[in-house]
């Protein structure tokens, strides 16, 4: 409305103010065009500036890309770069913040692929991303077939082949590395297995008690330690007049001693043992608080230790004496047999006491055996086993020598049990009048006061008497043991004789020994030396100059028990005289201890011919590991040692070779309880004791 009025007024006064219109129009146009020109010009300037900055930024980015690409090529191999290039070509350029994609890690994102599945227009505008999404979903669902690549471009096919080749190559390398590693492990295991002792492995068993408990006697030892300390505190309590505590200690001490008893492992302890340990521990703790004095405790323990050592020495001495006594004592059954046979013999008329075929006793063309024994049963086994295995028993002659105590029994046994067609003769060593103290050094020495003191005074405090109990043996007092050095005197008309001990068993025909060439030597025997044992230095005193000057300490020892003696050579070399000379020199027992093997080694030094070991296998009286094959192939097996087969000490595994030559059906054996059942009972009792 105002405008109308303005225009009206202008029209009214058109005529009046026509002269001033032009300047006003110019002013209005200038006011409108000036801002327009300003803004247009500024816009053109800004556009130019943006173009220049864009070109600079693009150049800067291209420079950085080239520098990064050069660094990547220096770091990674061409194969790695190809893999990255292939991945980016298939999936598009990679960038951070792609945790929305399930086919990549949270650190990568495929640019150009919209994450919203609801934007159909965007999906249609980017068919590559849509195809890729479908492909990845098919891979996840397992519906994509490896051989369906008909729509791939040649470039994709080449890249896929490269990937497949690289994967196959890498898989082959991994398989090769695995095979090499497995081979190395197998070789190392084989080498370690070679170093393992199979014998030790064979002994290991996880079910053994010592595997379950490393110290199966720990509780027993603890209780014994408590007993020792209780004994110490009992003594101290008595000294300090602590009678109540002493009585309490004595009560607990007796309880612990009864609980321990003869137990050696924890399994043998009663169920109350833990309670006993706890109770004793409380009493010992109380005694320690009231009685402990370091000086008194040490003194009492030292006194107890010395007492224990004395007891051990005494028990060891007693054990040695008893073992020797048990080894040399005739069992009651054998003594019974000897007594019954002796009575029967002296009831016989004199004309019935003679053996047949006495003409064979001095026939040098027969096979003669010398057997010196005071054991009827042992001698019967030797004769019976020899005859049983002989090819022609009629050519064998047995010369038995015994003492006067067993002379009747030995005669009576072989009169009742003659050895078939073989010849046998029994003599009494006490009837050898030529064997007296004036001729024999051993008899003279046995009659000396020093020897009687050595043998018969067991409580003699001298060193020799206390340290050599085993030499105080009844067999060293018997001339039956030394008679082997007088064979030519006993059998003057024989040329060869086979000496046998009474603790042997013959398993084969022995006539082949008479055909062995001794090469001028006197004694044919089996050597017993090993690498370092049973040599001369074990039997002789090489600190004595008489021994060290005449003998080699490493000379090999040999065994008595089965020896072939050439009596002609014996006489020629005066073997008995050599024995007498050395026996006289050893009157004070400084050259060797008592026995017959040491003087035998000296007497026959350089005059012994070694026989094949299969003739004579030793050790069945002391060695539990004699090879069974050696025993079975041996002509003679020898029970040398303390474990004689007729004793309860005998090793059960070797007894069968001996008892099979005993006539158990004999009435005298049955009357003295010498039956197979008796030996079985002895064996069972021995096993129970063990």
- What would the average pLDDT be, to the nearest integer? 77
Say what oligomer this is. single chain
Shape: elongated
Count up the helices.
Answer: 28
What does the main sheet amount to?
Answer: 7 strands, mixed
Radius of gyration from the CA trace? 57 Å
Terminal Cα span: 146 Å
Specify the helix fraction band. Answer: 40-55%
Please tag this protein with its features:
3-stranded mixed sheet; 12 strands; disordered C terminus; 690 residues; 28 helices; alpha/beta; disordered N terminus
Question: If you had to describe this structure to a student in words, what would you say it looks like?
Answer:
The protein has helices spanning 2-12, 21-75, 78-91, 120-125, 127-141, 154-194, 198-203, 209-212, 218-239, 243-260, 273-291, 294-328, 332-347, 376-388, 407-416, 441-446, 449-456, 463-467, 487-490, 536-539, 545-550, 567-573, 575-585, 597-603, 628-633, 652-659, 667-671, 676-689; strands spanning 94-95, 109-110, 367-372, 396-402, 423-428, 496-500, 504-506, 523-525, 562-566, 608-610, 616-617, 636-638. With 690 residues, the chain is an alpha/beta fold. Helix 9 packs parallel to helix 11 (273-291). The relative contact order is 0.05. Residues 1-18, 89-129, 138-147, 196-212, 461-467 and 686-690 have low confidence and may be disordered.
């Amino acid at each position: 409305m105002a405008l109308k009025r303005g225009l009206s007024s202008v029209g009214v006064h058109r005529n009046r103010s026509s002269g001033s219109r032009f300047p006003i129009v110019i002013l209005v146009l200038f006011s409108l065009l000036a801002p327009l020109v300003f803004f247009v010009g500024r816009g053109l300037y800004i556009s130019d500036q943006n173009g220049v900055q864009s070109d600079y930024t693009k150049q800067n980015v291209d420079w950085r890309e080239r520098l990064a690409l050069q660094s990547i090529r220096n770091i990674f191999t061409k194969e790695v770069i190809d893999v990255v290039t292939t991945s980016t070509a298939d999936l598009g350029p990679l960038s951070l913040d792609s945790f929305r994609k399930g086919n990549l890690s949270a650190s990568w994102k495929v640019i150009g692929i919209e994450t919203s599945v609801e934007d159909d227009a965007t999906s249609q505008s980017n068919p590559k991303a849509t195809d890729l999404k479908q492909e990845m979903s098919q891979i996840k669902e397992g519906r994509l077939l490896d051989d369906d690549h008909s729509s791939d471009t040649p470039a994709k096919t080449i890249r896929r082949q490269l990937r497949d080749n690289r994967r196959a190559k890498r898989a082959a390398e991994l398989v090769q590395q695995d095979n090499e590693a497995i081979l190395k492990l197998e070789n190392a295991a084989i080498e370690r297995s070679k170093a393992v002792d199979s014998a030790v492995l064979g002994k290991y068993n996880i079910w053994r008690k010592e595997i379950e408990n490393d110290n199966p006697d720990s509780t027993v030892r603890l209780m014994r330690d408590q007993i020792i300390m209780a004994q110490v505190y009992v003594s101290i309590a008595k000294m300090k007049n602590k009678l109540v505590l002493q009585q309490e200690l004595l009560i607990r001490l007796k309880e612990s001693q009864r609980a321990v008893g003869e137990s050696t492992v924890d399994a043998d302890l009663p169920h109350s043992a833990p309670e006993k340990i706890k109770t004793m521990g409380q009493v010992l703790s109380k005694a320690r608080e009231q009685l402990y004095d370091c000086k008194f405790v040490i003194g009492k323990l030292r006194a107890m230790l010395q007492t224990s050592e004395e007891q051990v020495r005494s028990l060891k001495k007693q054990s040695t004496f008893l073992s020797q006594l048990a080894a040399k004592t005739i069992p009651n059954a054998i003594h019974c047999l000897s007594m019954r046979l002796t009575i029967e013999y002296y009831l016989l008329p004199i004309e019935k006491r003679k053996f047949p075929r006495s003409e064979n006793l001095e026939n040098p063309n027969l096979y003669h055996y010398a057997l010196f024994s005071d054991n009827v049963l042992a001698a019967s086994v030797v004769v019976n086993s020899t005859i049983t295995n002989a090819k022609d028993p009629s050519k064998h002659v047995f010369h038995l020598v015994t003492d006067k105590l067993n002379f009747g029994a030995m005669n009576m046994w072989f009169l009742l049990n003659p050895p078939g067609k073989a010849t046998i003769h029994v003599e009494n060593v006490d009837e050898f009048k030529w064997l007296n103290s004036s001729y024999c050094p051993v008899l003279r020495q046995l009659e000396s006061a020093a020897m009687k003191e050595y043998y018969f005074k067991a409580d003699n405090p001298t060193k020799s008497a206390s340290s050599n109990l085993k030499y105080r043996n009844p067999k060293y007092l018997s001339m039956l043991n030394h008679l082997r050095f007088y064979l030519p005197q006993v059998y003057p008309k024989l040329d060869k004789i086979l000496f046998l001990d009474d603790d042997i068993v013959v398993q084969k025909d022995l006539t082949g020994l008479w055909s062995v060439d001794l090469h001028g030597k006197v004694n044919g025997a089996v050597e017993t030396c090993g690498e370092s044992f049973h040599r001369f230095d074990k039997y002789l005193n090489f600190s004595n100059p008489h021994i060290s000057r005449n003998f080699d300490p490493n000379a090999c020892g040999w065994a008595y028990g089965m020896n072939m003696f050439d009596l002609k050579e014996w006489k020629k070399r005066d073997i008995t005289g050599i024995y007498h000379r050395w026996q006289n020199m050893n009157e004070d027992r400084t050259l060797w201890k008592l026995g017959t093997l040491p003087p035998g080694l000296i007497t026959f030094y350089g005059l012994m011919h070694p026989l094949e070991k299969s003739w004579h296998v030793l050790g069945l009286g002391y060695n539990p590991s004699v090879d069974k094959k050696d025993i079975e192939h041996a002509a003679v097996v020898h029970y040398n040692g303390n474990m004689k087969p007729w004793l309860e000490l005998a090793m059960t595994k070797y007894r069968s070779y001996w008892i099979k030559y005993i006539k158990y059906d004999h009435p005298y054996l049955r009357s003295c309880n010498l039956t197979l059942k008796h030996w079985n009972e002895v064996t069972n009792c021995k096993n129970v004791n063990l």
